[in-house]
Amino acid sequence: MTWGEGLTWTPELTDEELHWQRVAEKLAAGPFARRAAEIDSAGEYPWDNVALLTEAGLTGLLLPEEYGGEGAPLSAGCAVAETIARVCASTCTVWSSYAIGSLPLLYAGTEAQKQRYLPEVVAGRAIGFGLTERHTGSDPSNVRTSAENTERGWALKGEKWLVGNGGSAHYYTVFARDGAKLTAFLLERDGDHLVIDDYQDKMGLRGTTTSNLKIDCEVPADRQVGDRGRGLALGLRTLNTGRVLAAALSCGIAEQAFAAASRRAVTREAFGGPIIGHQGISFRLADVATELSAARMMTWQAARGSGPGGPGRQLSSMAKLYASEVAHRAVDAALQVFGAEGYAKPHPVERSYRDQRILEIFEGSSEIQRVSLGRTIAAFYQDA
C-alpha cells in the first residue's frame, strides 16, 4: 500500500523508530486491516487485536525496560500510531489508551506502584484515564469527585465520564478533589467495586469502549499517585503526551484519506477524463498534501523534542489542534472525491469520516487548545 511518501513530508526514521514502524505495519497490513470493518460494524472491543499488540511488545512500548516495557521514545509511538490509524483508528485508540492511562504512574508513581502495575499493563491488562466528568468537559479544575483522607487511607466518591477503555480496563488512574486541589489515585475495577453502567454508542471509533465510572470506595494510602494536591499538574502533563499521540493518529487517518482520494481521482472519470485533471479536485488534494506535511512536521517535532517529563505543552497543543483539523479536511476531501460511493458502508472513507470527528473533541477540544495557546500568547507579550 502506498501512502503518499515522496508527495508528503515523511520523517527520516532512526533505527529504533523504523523497527517499531515495521512491527506495526505487519499487524496493520494483516489482521488489523482484515478486522477493521467488522470491529466498526459490531461496535466490538478488539481483544484479539490487543493480544497481538501485547505479543508484539506494543502495550508496553513507552514503558521502561525495568518494568517489562520496551523503553521506546515517544517518536516511536508516533510511528506506531500513524501506521495503525491508517487501517483501524479504533485499534490505534485502544493502544494509545494503554499509554495514557499508565503515564501518571510512570511520571509520579512510587517504585512499589510501578513494580506492581506497569508489568500488568505490559502484559495486556488494560488501564484507563479518568479525569473528565459530565459537567466539566475541558475544565479539569472543576472536578467534583471527592477524596477524603481517613485513618485507613482515602474515601473516594463521584463519577467519571468518557473514560477511554472504560469497562474493558482492569485499572484506572482517577483524579479527585482533595480540599481545594486535585490528587490522583490508582483504582482497581474489581477490588474497589467500581460500577460501569453507561456505555456510549458512538458515531465513530466504535471498536473502543467509552463509559462512565462510578466510584464509591475506600482505598489504602499507597494508592495515591504522586504528591497530594498535585493531581491537576499530573493530569495536564499526561495530556501533553496524549495530544501528541492524538496528533499522530490524526495524521494516520489523514494519510489514508489522502492516498485513497488521490488513487480514486486518477481512475474516476468525468467530462472526458480523470477528475484529477479538474482544478476543483487537484487543488483540493494539493492543499491536503501541503497541510498534512505541515501537520506531520509539527507532530514529529513535538515527539522528538520531548524529554523524560514528556513533551512541552505549547507544541503538543499546536500539533493536536492542527493535525486533527487537517484530518477533518482530508476525510472531507476524500468523501467528495468518492461521492456516493464513499458515503455508504462499509467503505473505508465512510468509516474514516466518522472516526475522525472525535479527534477535534477528545484530549482537549480545538477550542480549548486555542484558549490555552491564546493565554500563552497574552502572557508572553504582557511580560515582554
Secondary structure layout plus pairing:
Elements lengths: L14 H28 L4 H9 L18 H12 L3 H20 L2 H12 L4 E4 L15 E5 L2 E12 L6 E8 L2 E8 L21 E10 L4 E2 L5 H37 L1 E2 L2 E2 L4 H26 L8 H26 L1 H4 L4 H9 L9 H18 L1
Parallel strand pairs: 1-4
Antiparallel strand pairs: 2-3, 3-6, 4-5, 5-7, 8-9
Helix pairs in contact: 1-3, 3-4, 3-6, 4-5, 4-6, 6-7, 6-8, 6-10, 7-8, 8-10, 8-11
Give the structure's gist in a few sentences.
The chain has helices spanning 15-42, 47-55, 74-85, 89-108, 111-122, 231-267, 279-304, 313-338, 340-343, 348-356, 366-383, and strands at residues 127-130, 146-150, 153-164, 171-178, 181-188, 210-219, 224-225, 269-270, 273-274. It has 384 residues and is α+β, with helices and mostly antiparallel strands. A 4-stranded mixed β-sheet has the order 1-4-5-7.
Protein architecture, described:
The structure is a single chain. The chain is of the alpha+beta class and 384 residues long. It contains eleven helices and nine strands. It has helices at 15-42, 47-55, 74-85, 89-108, 111-122, 231-267, 279-304, 313-338, 340-343, 348-356, 366-383; strands at 127-130, 146-150, 153-164, 171-178, 181-188, 210-219, 224-225, 269-270, 273-274. The protein has a four-stranded mixed beta sheet. The chain has a three-stranded antiparallel beta sheet with strand order 2-3-6, covered by helices on one side. A hairpin with a 2-residue loop joins strand 4 and strand 5. Helix 1 packs parallel to helix 3.
